[in-house]
Structure formats: structure tokens, C-alpha cells
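Appendix B. Raw example, untouched.
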Amino acid sequence: MAIAKMKKLTLLSEHHNKESILKSVQEMQSLEIIPLKGKLEDELFEEFDMSDAETSQSDRQATLQDIEYSHNFLKNYVERPGLIERLKAKREIFTLEALETHVEGAEIEELLEKVSAKEKQLNKMDEQLKELNQEESFLRKWRGLSFHPEEADSFRLMHVSVGSVDKEHAAPLVENFKENGKIYFDEIFRRSDEIAYLIILPKEEKHNFNQLTGQYSFRELDYPFDVLPEDALYKNLNAQKELKEEKQAVIKYLKKWKTEYRNLELAEEYYYNLSARETAHDLLVDSAHLFLLTGWVEEEKVSNLKANINQSVGEDAVAILTDDILMKEYEEVPVVLKNNKLVKPFEMITEMFSFPKYNGADPTPLMMPFFMIFFGMMSADLGYGLLLFGVTLFALKSFNIEGSAGNFIKFLHTLSYPTMAFGLFFGSFFGIELPIQVFSLQDDVLEIMALSVILGLIQLLYGLVLNGLLKSRQGQRASSYVDGYAWFLMLIGFILWTGGSLVLEMPLLSQIGIGLVALNALGILVVSAVSSSNKALGLGLGAYNLYGISGYVGDIVSYTRLMALGVASANIAMAFNMIIGFLPPIARFSVGILIIIALHTLNIALTFLSAYVHTSRLQYVEFFGKFYEGGGKPLTPLKALEKHVWMEDNN
């Protein structure tokens, strides 16, 4: 079910063809190379070198890191198109050969040195500016000093001291000055945490002065400039201005490095591709004359891959064999999900949980209808759905959004349809009740809860049937009944039992339901015992299996969140509308418009996020838990980076 059929491809060629063949494989981006070292013990491969290939892999990685670093550095300066323009632009398409030719002609090593030199120049300027800023701060504090401190050293009878003290020590220090009576002092500046003084005293008082100031951590001014603070500050500000202008000139120069910036992007692609091929060298086995490569590839891509390899080295220069996948290899075979355009965006939900095994089933198309219904029921607003529809459609039509981001936009666009449908079903438009509705999110809460439980039961029953079918296909007949069909029939029995007794008052229907429950409960015990080599243990496992009925009760209750979130979202929107309704008419149609837009934007974000999270949870826990095991791994082919450009698709 939507899992691509795989082939095992084995390739043998002469050693000198290795790089050309690996380029062809990388260009096709479809072959995952299997590491062969330690797996081949046949005498046929005795001549092959099984040791790691001696390559310049570490050098390539270092160069790649330098390119990425330089690219990120220039990103801060180079003039680039705006976000809207970048979203509209299409990526260039290259072949590996064209990319290699371009990068080899771009002199990347010299470019890296140029970028490094400019970075060092800017860093040096920043350090100089930092030092000048510190000097400026110092000089601004002392600009009130009208003489050079060194001039006071020539006084024969008086000692002059200039310095500062912490603010909390200033008052007691000044008090001691006043008590002494021989000390003259004047305040030079005052800051929030520091006060500076000019102090003059007889030289015979210097010893006492030093003892006194030592008690209060008085700091003598260390003045490193030849001119007065005012003049030094003027020179400092001029130096800062010149340095900033010089820095701006360098930045202006870097803004024009569009070609260099683009060359670094292409170099990143090229060196990543080169590094990936060198990594692939360690996955194959090599000799002086031949090399052997094997890997997994989709069956539908085998012919194109062969054709591309044959074109690069010649059909006679390479031997390519393809084999069907053996059952013993199922655990190792990587998986490629294959779905149509409608289902494909929902593959992200499966991938976040776990890839299926090769012999399993892709749950994406099985889960998608339920995901849409549940998301729509939790969002359930025509206005919100129309807004989601319009925004995503505009993004898809106006912008060239590709890759995973494009798939996510398509995913949201698809979910806008059930959101609009359930908005009509429940008659809600931005929290306003429409005159036509099937159920009201305000008045029919119990009916909506019953609908939620019914939808949940349908999904649970569907999951149990799928469990039975998949286990039967895998030859696990006992498990298909015990874990799938039996529980399906028991749940049907409980539904008939409950419906016949409490809803329809039909005793016959109720008795049929009781019979189904009892018969399949007994069947679980019997089949578990018969299929086990240890009958007592099998009987115990069957009894434990029956204990799982409590889990089904919890699963069914979990689906009531469909009602809870839908009702909560609608009532929050209604409450926001009521708040605006209480405003006076003038405020309602002025500031009220801005408020209601902000409030509904918040509710939309919370509604869609909650719907996405809780719908995913219902799939992962309640639905997948009934039939899906996962445990597979995705195909990881030898491929190009495709971060800044697309590689030409030859498939």
C-alpha cells in the first residue's frame, strides 16, 4: 500500500571508472549504497581491499566548513533580494558537471582568503572602536579636570592628589577631611556609584592622608594621556568618527559582493557533493583494478540509473545486476512512500511517527481521511477555513515554495476544505452563528459528543480490520484473529448490546451483541492457547489480552476531544465578539476593529495548533496503535545537497 517496490543493484567496473560512476549515481539521487565491509567473506572477493579508502575527506570537510562560515559571514553584509522576491524566485538548475565547471573557475580558495581578510579587518576595527568607547567613557568622566595631573608633581610644599572613591565611602572620607582642617578638596564629578575629588594638602600630611584614604579605597587617577581630558576627548571622538567611516566603507564594499556570495553558495553545493562521494568510497569494496558497489534502488528508477551510468562510462565498461528483494532482507530494505498529489503532503504525519517496514503498509492514505475529518471538526469555522484557504492558495500561486515547506503549505491548504465544511455543518462564521446549521456548537453539545464517539468507533473498527488483514497477509493467522478480527467483532457486539438495551429497546439485538462478545472472548482464549507451544502460557496471554478492554474504553473517551476543542474554539470566538459588542459604537468601529482582528488571530493560531496536535495524537495512539508497527527506515540515497540550487532531474 503506497510503498515503492525496491530492487537490489550490484555494480562491477574497473577502478578508473569509480569517480565517473559515483557522479552518475549522485546525479540520479536514487541509489542508497550498502556498506560492504565486513559482509563479504566469499573467496571471490579476496582480492578486494576491505580497508578504509585513503581520501582527503577531512580536508574536504574543513574546506566545506570554511565555505559555510564565509557564506554566513557575507550574509550579514551582501545586499540580497527581499523576502517576497526570494519567495517568488525559482532556484537555478545545474548538472553536476556544470556546477563543477562553475566552482573550479571561481577560485574559491582565493575567495575564502579575501573573505577572511575582510573579517579580520572588521574585527580589528570593532576592537579599536571598543577601546575608543572605553576611553571616551573615561574622558567624559574627567573632562572637568582643568590641569594635567603631572603638573602637580612639581609642587615643593603641597601634595596634590586626584582620584575617586565609591559613593558609599565618600561621606565618611569627606568628614575626615573636614576634621583634619589642613586638607582642601573639591568635587570633580559625581556618578551613581563613584565620586571624584581634587585634594590638596601639605606634604607633611601625606602619610596620614595615605592611611586615611587607604581605609576608604580611594583610587588615585592613572592618567595616560599627554593632553587635557577635554582635548583628548576631542581627538578620541574624531578617531571614532574616522574609524566608523572606514568601517562603513568596508561594509559598503562587501554589500556589492553578490557574485562572490553566489559563488560561495555554489561552492557549498559542490564540496558537499564531493564529500558525499568520498564518503561513498568507504561503503564499497575496492582493488587495484576493480571496484564493487551494491545498493537499494526503486524498481521504476533502475532503467534510468543504468542508462545514466552507461552513458557516463560506456555500456561495456560496467556490469550492472539487479535482484529481487529476498524475504530475509526485508528488515534491511529502506522504504520510499509513493502516494498521489492529494495524499503526499500527509506523508509528513507518518514520517514523524515512523516509516513502515518494507513488508508492511503505508498508513498515510488510510489515515488521511480521518485526519481531515478530525481536523475539520476541531477547527469547525467557515471563516477560519476561508482564511486558511485564501492564505495557502495565495502562497501556492504567488510564491515558488518548494521542498518540505511547499508540502506543508499544501497540507494546510487541503485541511482548509474540511474546516470550511464543518464550519457550515455547525453554522459558525468567525464565532457568529449562521441561520443554517445541522448542529449548534452552543446548544447541541451532547449530540456533537455522540458524533465524536461514533467517528472514533469507526476509526477503531477500521484499524482492527486492517490489523487482521495485514497479519493474514504476513501469514500470522492466529495473531490476525486475536489482535484484529476478534476485537472487531467484540466491539461490534458491545455496540449491538448497548444499542439494543439502552437505545432501541430490542432484546434480540442485545442478545446477538452479548453472543458476539462472549463467543469472541472465548475465541481469544482458545486461539491463544492452541497457537502457543505452552498451552498454559498461551491461555494466560489470552486472558491478559482480554484485560485490554479497559484500554478501548479510554480510546473511545479520547475521541470526545473532537467535540471539546470544536466547542471551545467556537465559544472563545463568540466571547471575543461579545467583548467588542460591549464597546460604544465609535470605539467598536475604530479601535474595536483592530482588537477583534488581534483576538481572532490569536484564536485562529490556537485553534489550528490544537487541532493539528490532537488530531495527530489520535492517529498515533488510537489508530496506529491498532494495526501499525513502523520500524522502517527511509531511503537515503547518494545525492546532492540542493540547498541553494536544484540538480537536474534525470529520473
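End of appendix B.
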